[in-house]
């Protein structure tokens, strides 16, 4: 019995040591500040592919596109004008997507898509995923809505018809978490 208790105490101490190391490493990682990203707010200018690539390279160098962790889940689509939807997002700033659209301008990541998730992923979490039938490039999105469970991520689309025909249900999709919640 003594050996069992001693082994459990040692295992607990090892666990605490590992947690302390992880916490210390997390604190050692560089904090990223504001980055200037090329935005085209008035839609009158065209932005060259080289400029966009340079901006993405800058984000990559700063570690912004490096995942914190990944998970496997499902992707579905929805629209702000669905039968049970009000058009307002559940997370602050609670924008009306019927008026504002399916994109959000994040201070760090620029113009990105909006998704709904379960409460498992905090508001403001940035996800990156790749669905070839939607885009040749990876999609970067922010959690600004609720209404699904588990590891289902619901991509905000222009209409329910588009969500059904183009997004459907993508199973066993790998999601990268680039930021957890809002930055301070």
> Mind summarizing the main beta sheet?
6 strands, mixed, barrel
Overall SS class: alpha+beta
CATH architecture of the domain at 68-179: Beta Barrel
N→C terminal distance: 49 Å
User: How many β-strand runs?
Assistant: 7
**Poorly predicted runs:** 29-40
Radius of gyration, CA atoms, in whole angstroms: 20 Å
Top-tier CATH class of the domain at 68-179: Mainly Beta
Q: Strand percentage, roughly? A: 25-35%
CATH fold assignment of the domain at 68-179: Barwin-like endoglucanases
How large is the count of helical segments? 4
**Helical fraction:** 25-40%
Mean pLDDT over the residues: 83
Summarize the structure.
By secondary structure, the chain is α+β, with helices and mostly antiparallel strands. It has helices at residues 2-28, 49-62, 97-100, 160-167; strands spanning 69-79, 103-106, 110-116, 126-129, 139-145, 152-157, 169-179. It has a domain at 68-179: Barwin-like endoglucanases (Beta Barrel), CATH 2.40.40.10.
List keywords for this structure.
Barwin-like endoglucanases, 184 residues, alpha+beta, six-stranded mixed β-barrel, 29% helix
